[in-house]
Amino acid sequence: MGNPAFWDIMSYVPEWAYADANSETHIYDEMWTGNWWWDIQSKLPEGVVVMPVILSSDKMLLSQFSGDKKVWPVYLTIRNISKDVRHQVSAHATVLIGYLPKKSQLVTGYRLFHHSMALLLCPLANAGHKGREMICANRYICRIHPILTAYIADFPEQCLVACNKESWCPCCLVQLNKCGDLEDWESCCMADTLKTLQKFDAEGLHAVFNPFWKDLPFTEVFTCLTPDILHQLHKGIFHDHLVQWCMSIVSEKEIDAHFQAMTQYPTLHHFKKGISSVLQWTSTEHKEMQRVFVGLLASAVEDCILVVVHSLLDFIYYVQLQCHTDMTLVAMEEGLKMFHAHKHVLVELGVHEDFNVLKIHSMQHYVTSIQALGSTDGYNMEYPEQLHIDYTKDGYWASNKCNYMEQMALWLQCQEAMYYKSVYLAWRKPCAVGLESGCKSNARDSETHIGDPARSAAVKAHYKVAKIPPHCQVSVNSIESQKWVIQPIRLDQFDVYNYLYVMSGPSVITGHSQSFQKIHALPKIAAHGWKAETPARFDTMFVMDGELIFRLPNQFGTFIHPLAYVEWFTTLQCQDPATSLYVVTCSTRNHRHNASIISIDCIDHACHLQGWCGREISKDWSADCILEKAASFFVNSYIDLDMFLSLE
Any residues with CB less than 8 A from the CB of 464 and at least 6 apart, and which? Predict the structure, then answer.
């Protein structure tokens, strides 16, 4: 709270944020824009500062290849710090407060966990009741009330915190046979739970009579259990359920063939062998599949199945936004309602018997959690897993593997002492640090080349091309041999580029910073020696098909920007009703491709087109030729969050 390094990214009071001038559409982003902080602030004396505390725990295996050495770390951070900085492990905004003893599957394991957590959080309970005067990062002395706000954990540990069995929901009182229904259920209450622990078995509780959260002030632990996107949505809803349902309808071999023939796109992972051969799944593979799954199934299954897939993917995509409004929350609820309205199709087809699954039920808690605590990226389960490297694995490998927990704790103390000493010295010498960072910035800027260096001072471009074209003085005959059609005389020569980098601006909604998208315009490279033939690759840009990026010779005049030869597709007018994806076809003129030469400063964004492949994809279709063989294409709005919001 008093770290001067965080003075400009700390918040001490709650805020209301609106997306319109009439203050009607709420914005839910950081913790201080949610409803929880306002509710707690109204219960405390005027002038005190709330310090929302986030706890996270996740068991992990230390041994590699063999062995059973495990550790159970508990991390703590505060929501006053901006989530962008808090998620940087190098910022040291999260601290390790202890290692928990290993839990057995018996009731004694539950009691041991709560007793250990009560010992760790005893100072938090005392300070939460009366408050503590602290020097904050802004150098003011404030009375701080640390209050537990969120507990980030996977589902088994959520049940462990809530003292309930893993067959029950840890957040609400839903009945066991009603998890698949879209109904509102009363949230769990701490006071009622403490009373009913005496008849624990009938209520789905474990016999933990002194839970660690019993004495924590202003804490409702059941609202602290945050949604887990990683295990509930990416791995649970999508991979374990939705993908398996679709593979029961469409054969595994056919889905693999569709993935193998998927058109390429910058940063998109291409499953060259399909998905059935993937042995180890991570969140990266899950997200890459989600980017193409709707368009992949658009021509392979019935429309009623597409509605189910489309509604669940819409919900998953909206959840991942880093800034929500009332409209995006309504869209989330509409996607969930659409799924429940059409899920009976899966039962009729014999794909699934019932939907009495807790992970499906957990989707009902996302909207209320976002309204209370802010966007879900502030309490994502992926972040604690990133902390394991610095706070557990590095310390374990620095030990002698015997009594390793004590050695890990000592090693971490030394590392933190050195870090805080270096930060203090840097803080005492701001001029030297500023000079050093300025030198680095200048060196980095000198490596960036935007447009033509001779003209960059006069024209501010939003693209990058190579300083030296990879193909200089290319003749017209060579260009025609690659199926590029240009009409100058035979003696003309062109400088041809293989790549174009289009700048994508920062987005508060999706959370990414300013970046460049790499657009490919690669001709076919013939086999040479032991190197196999490299097929041509021409990426698609929005409403256009990039074919050739070049500069005109001097005799054609002076042009500020390089030019691109493009072949057009039809405009975004026709929309598929089942998937809400736009459908385009190749634009023709006089029975030939409708082509143009444009300035590359007109190119705005890369575009991903998915070919309409039918129920069974042709065996001669591949990722290299599908743009030429498919008759129509789906404009993939799920390729990234920016495109998803733009085309919705």
Answer: 448, 449, 450, 451, 500, 501, 503, 516
